[in-house]
Amino acid sequence: MKGHIAFCPHFHQPHFQLYRTREEAMRHSYEPWLRLLNEAAQLPGFFVNLHYSGPFLYWMRSEKGDFAPQLRKLIAGGKVGILGGLADEPFIQLSSRRDDVLYQMQEYDAICREVLGVKAAEWQGVHIVERECGEYMLYHLSRAARLMDAKAIFYLDAESFYGSHFTYPGGSEDYCMKHFGFKDPVAKTVFSHLPEQLLYFPLRDELAGESFISVPVHSQHRYQLLKRQAFTGEDRVKIKPSHYLFYLKDAIAQAWELSNKMGRPMEPVVVIFEDAEKFGQWSKDPEGDHQWMMEFFRQVQADPEVDFTGLRDYVERQGYYDSYPVGSSHSYPEWENWTAKRGIRGICFGDERLRRVVARLRRTEALQQGLEEGVIKRAAQALPPELREITLRVWLESEERYRLVETLLKQEDAALQQAYKAINRVRHLVYQEDPKWASRHPSYGSSPYYDVNGLAYLELADRLLKKLYERSELTLLPSPLLQDWDMDGLEEVWVEKPRLTLSLDREGGCVNYMHVVDREYGENGKLQLAALEKEICAVRSYNDILRYSSALVLSETDSSLRFEAYPEGGRRELCRNSMRCDVIAGPAANSFHYVNDFGRGLYELDELTETDETIIVRMSHSADGGNFGRVRLEKTFTIEQDKMTVHFAARCERQPEGTNLTLCPQIVCTATPSDEVHFAPESWLGFPAGNERIRVSLLPHSGDEAARHTEEVDWKGRVDYLYRTDSGNGARFYNRVRFKMGGGDIINLGVEPAVRHYYINMVFPEQSRLSYNSSGMMLRPVVRFVDGKAEFTVSQSWQLDVKPEAERYGVRLPLIK
Fold first, then answer.
1. Rounded distance, CA 806 to CA 804, Å?
2. What pLDDT is attached to residue 79?
3. Residue 591: is it exposed, middle or buried by C-beta count within 10 angstroms (0-12/13-18/19+)?
4. Helix H segments across 381-491?
5. Strand 322-323 to strand 482-483: parallel, antiparallel, or no bridges (unpaired)?
6. Among 335, 326, 357, residue whose Cα is nearest residue 94
């Protein structure tokens, strides 16, 4: 018996990763990995297949110049092979463009050549993000690999892609037994089925004529690697290197024996795939992990029945076992409980916040396609009329559409080409993996930080794209004010201005997206392009984009706003958003109830008026208020370039004597402070001194209601929210959001995190709880009804990159301690 081990560690860092997180991983994992590989390379027969994510390579290039030469030396020594992949580590199957796959692989090829000196034709295989793909993805990856002279060799999870599909009379797939109570005698599997023991060989498959090789990965071998520590208090299993090698050889022996029985003897291969950060970073014991790994390497080196191999080297030497179909994957099985069994698509389109990220991207993609169609149509005018429409369709469906458009624009004006390249580069960042995958896993907290940064660049790219229409003399149709931009089945009011993008949702009568851009960057195409070229085209690891482009409302889903059919998970969680409003009744503060559901109700659109300077939107919702009769709440939004004013007006048919009725708007800003170097974020509320008094009730950062702080504050109807950003590039700046309030009898101003829990009881409690540092803040003024009526007005303005001027405030309330 002879077997082989293809060891494939994956080094993963996303774009916009925090400085401190990267540096910690460098100390605990990446530098120890180099020491490990240098020592292991002295062993005869040692070989390892490494995959570095594109963002990792860009970071290595810009920040860790001494790292790559050591890797290059190992590669040149024939001990290390490189696995290719996608430049931004994206879930590219979310893209609406077929040319994005080739673009991503070509960009990865470029950075891999530059940093590691390895070209696509030399890759040992192609890494697929989370092995999360279906037929569409496998087809386009295989086609792109062929076009780049790379080998379409993928490692795919055995459990996801090669699940058992036996059926038999009376089984779970027997519809006669299921629906009518008798067995269907023909409910039998007739297709040749490879048993699990044979999933240790390369298997060929093809989709639409594009062939590829899949080498199955088994989760058992992934999770047993470096199993030196307990996962939980109940875990008593620790695996020594000798135990691990025994398990690998046992799997190899079974595969060898069965392949011989089936008349197709071939030397099996075990693919060990695992995140490289498991070594050193997860354990925080790189020395102990080093000893474990070296002992394992030496045992393999000393065993004549096994050896290490390159993935491609093995396939070229052994061939493939047979043609055998890959199933369409959802994700790997142990994670499907939180992906709706649809992988990344289930997460992104089943979750409101993530769907809005993709929806915002769709708008820019549509705008980009309009530009491309115009450029291609102009070029096609030189063709005979009968070929123009055909050529347009062919070029738009090409895997190299972006390259064609770049070339055509360069012929017109090199500056147009540069702007187009920057826009196309930015668009890809929004698909990157981490924000959409890990933030919904029970083990990880919400991570909107990544999406907020990507969207900040996207908003600049969107504005630059409109400038390109002008420069290219193409017609840009105005965006309709009413459209279902976020794919929820309801039309929203969609506002696009040079310095403001805003969406008003009829469900809850609220702001569900709000992004602001600095005055100069919102209107100056040269500044927009300069920012994108400097930070995105050059792929800088650290940025300060939020000082001139920032989301003010992109909220997390809020468990207190859920519709729940049953506790096990039959629920729909809504985003908190901003400018929701409740009507609350109760004789005392500790004894109250919500009057109907004005916070989540469906509002009627009563007025939509647009002028050159302002847009006025009026919405209303009426509902039964019990003892108060019919209650009506009207909201009027007045939207300008740098300000939004909202007027709330409520009335009830009657207000029984001795009852209290209050109006409670929810004024939310989801922008959060960030300190990626020291993890000491700062945000606070500032109250300029005035001749009025207001009671402020502040929920502490801990979320402990018992520790809620209440004090009387002098004010003049204004509160400023200031939050600080400390970037890994050394930049430090404050942004300010100002709220002016009045027009009603405000008896209390509540302050609390914008969202306190998301997916409560679904993800782990410590991950479900959010606070000011992770969800932003919410102001909740309580306005008294008088004679059956209540009114309140808030005017919101903003300024990016300001001096905090703390001394100008009579009272400052820190939100994070």
1. 5
2. 96
3. exposed
4. 385-396, 401-412, 414-429, 434-437, 448-471
5. unpaired
6. 357
Q: What confidence tens digit (pLDDT) does each residue in 693-750 have?
A: 999 999 999 999 999 999 999 999 999 999 999 999 999 999 999 999 999 889 999 9
The pLDDT assigned to 718 comes to: 97
Give the largest CA-CA distance in the chain: 93
Q: From residue 805, how far is each of 688, 720, 722, 743, 815 by CA, in Å?
A: 11, 11, 10, 28, 17
Q: What is the DSSP letter of 487?
A: S
Q: Are strands 674-675 and 718-726 parallel, antiparallel or unpaired?
A: parallel
Say what the pLDDT of residue 590 is: 53
SS3 814: strand
CA 576 to chain centre: 18
Contact (CB, 8 A) for 210 and 146: yes
Residues with pLDDT less than 70, the chain: 435, 587-591
The number of residues making up the chain comes to 817
Per-residue CA distances from 55 to 60, 186, 240 (Å): 8, 52, 33
Report d(CA 640, CA 345) in Å as an integer. Answer: 36
Q: How far apart are the first and last CA of the chain?
A: 63
DSSP per-residue letters across 424-446: HHHHHHTTBSHHHHGGGSTTS--
Instruction: List, in order, residues 6 or more apart from 480 with CB less than 8 Å away.
Output: 494
At 131 the pLDDT is 87
Reduced to 3 DSSP states, what percent helix, strand and coil does the chain have, rounded to the nearest 5?
A: 35, 30, 35
Strand partners, 632: 622, 651
- CA 417, 641, 514, 617 torsion-angle sign: negative
**pTM (predicted TM-score):** 0.95
Angle, in degrees to the nearest 10, between helices 401-412 and 99-116: 80
Phi-psi region of 679 (alpha: psi -120 to 50; beta: other; left: phi over 0): left
747 with 527: CB under 8 angstroms?
no
- Residue ranges with strand state E in 436-537: 482-483, 492-497, 500-505, 510-517
List phi, psi (to 5°) of 647. Answer: -110, 125
Alpha carbons 81 and 117: distance in angstroms, whole number: 11
- Interval 151-203: pLDDT, tens: 999 999 998 898 877 788 998 888 899 899 999 998 888 777 888 888 999 99
- d(C-alpha 571, C-alpha 537), whole Å: 41
CA 608 from chain centre, in angstroms, equals 33
Residue 344's pLDDT is 84
Q: pLDDT tens digits, residue range 367-402?
A: 999 999 999 999 999 999 999 999 999 999 999 999
The per-residue pLDDT for 587 is 60
Q: Which two tokens stand for residue 789?
A: 């009526």
DSSP 571-607: EEEEE--BSEEEEEEEEETTEEEE-TTTTTPBPEEEE
Angle between helices 352-380 and 385-396 (to 10 degrees): 150
Quickly count: other Cβ atoms within 10 Å of residue 388's Cβ: 16
For residue 359, which phi and psi values (nearest 5 degrees)? Answer: -65, -40
Structure tokens at 481: 């004010």
- Reading the block at residue 125, the tokens are 């295989």
Q: Could you tell me where the beta strands, DSSP code E, fall in 522-590?
A: 549-553, 557-566, 570-575, 580-588
Q: Identify the burial level of 709 via C-beta atoms within 10 angstroms of its C-beta, where 0-12 means exposed, 13-18 middle and 19 or more buried.
A: exposed
Two tokens, residue 152: 């379409």
Reduced to 3 states (helix: H, G, I; strand: E, B; else coil), residue 754 is: coil
> Which residue from 582, 559, 586 is spatially nearest to 572, judged by alpha carbons?
559
Structure-derived torsion over alpha carbons of residues 633, 634, 640, 641, reported in degrees to the nearest 10:
30
Question: Contact 671/723 with Cβ under 8 angstroms?
Answer: yes
C-alpha span between 417 and 468 (Å, rounded): 10
Amino acid residing at 222: R
Nearest to 198 by CA among 259, 156, 249: 259
What is the residue-wise DSSP string for 271-327? Answer: EEEEEGGGTTTTTS-HHHHHHHHHHHHHHHHH-TTEEE--HHHHHHHH--SEE-PPP
